[in-house]
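Course assignment 3, question 2. Fill in each field.
Student: A.L.
Task: Predict the tertiary structure for the chain below.
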Amino acid sequence: MKQEKRQQREKEILDCARTLIGQHGFFDLKMSDLARAAGISVGTLYVHFASKEDLLLGLAMWAGAGRTAYLQTARQHDGPALEKFIVASLLDILFSIENPDLFEMEYLAMSPSIWQRATHGRHQDFLRKVSDATRMFQEFLDQAAPVLGENYSRDRGRTLNLGSWALSFGMNALALSEITDAHYGRLLRENALPTFCDGLTAMLVGAGWQADTAHSVIYGLGQHYMPQHFARVPLADAGG
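Answer field:
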């Protein structure tokens, strides 16, 4: 009961923090303002989150829990393991697109200037949450080994897993950046998922997937699971 009460209090604090950060940004957030908004004392706030860095990691873990819930749909996909990996990859980037503020919290939390100043326990909790999702992607890839060619190995699978994550993470980081707007306007943001599909196709084919229709398979899954982002991309033209 005591633990449940603590978890509920932390959720309420994170709810308030997300609202205030949306209004003022993380770096202008004051812990005293957050305590006031949450209806608690500053001392109580620091019992739950020892610093702003701990608070940020807490927000990133909250975002990670929401991302993991998105990814569970991939496990239910009625198709081979590689398709499940593709669906999980698409849902991963979709979560970031639909929750840009939570993605920003995850993005900031990975900065050494943040996690190195957080408490050890909070940092370890954050790493475990990231590992949960990583293991699921790796599981799909290992199950898909027969279609990824005879040269597939655990190490190559880990490299592919990391590469797809970097592609997704980098795409969303660029979509959030005003520097990108200066060069591409809204082009990247409006076409983030199709552009991601192009990159993922090249990565999987390069890894050994010999499917002649790789591009169509990936676009078809994208249109099935997130049609609103592929409405202007006819499947017949998805092959480039």
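Instructor remarks: The first helix runs from residue 2 to 24. Confidence is low (pLDDT under 50) at residues 235-240.
Grade: pending
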